[in-house]
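Lab channel / #folding
Pinned by the channel admin:
"Please post every new chain as: sequence first, then the structure tokens as a reply. Keep commentary short and put observations after the output so the thread stays searchable."

First post following the new format, from NK:
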Amino acid sequence: MGVVDVVRALADWWDAVELWLTQLPFGFQVVLATVVLVPLCWGTAVAADRAVDAAASRIAARRAARRP
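Reply from TO:
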């Protein structure tokens, strides 16, 4: 199975999910989007915060090491 086959299978799966989601009533769409997007956005924000903190700590340590 090549990369093209994997991408095609992923695209077909996504099309099926999208079709299923768009056929749901609006209220269920909102609830489902909220249940999925809120934790996803929260996790992304936490990961970005930790990455920025780690980078800032490394920069601060390098600057402290350079000072006489």
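NK: The chain is about 90% helix and 0% strand.
TO: also worth noting, Helices lie at 3-22, 26-66.
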